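User: I'm new to structure prediction. If I give you an amino acid sequence, what do you actually give back? Let's try with this one:
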Amino acid sequence: MSVDGGLVSATLLTTATALVAVSVLFVYRAAVGPTTADRVVAINAIGTTTIVVIALVAAAFDQPGFLDVALVYAMFNFLLSLGVAKFSVERGGTP
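Assistant: Good question. You get back a string of structure tokens that encode the predicted 3D arrangement of the chain. For your 95 residues, that looks like this:
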């Protein structure tokens, strides 16, 4: 691995670590609320951040197989968002 490759990997991993740290704020918002919409958006943001972190780790370690995991997780995250929105609307609230 060249010096530039090591620098790029370190930068990608640092960015992934920063995103994980920011996700702590999303976890707080999901736990505290105050509304259901806040919780739904926070959970969706956690899922999206997880997808980005998986993609960054895949690029940093040169493991393209991780991108498949990120894509499957993205599909599950999307379906979960649709399900929660539908459930929330059927209950009489707004998503």
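You can read the tokens as a compact description of the fold. Here is one thing that stands out. The first helix runs from residue 3 to 32.
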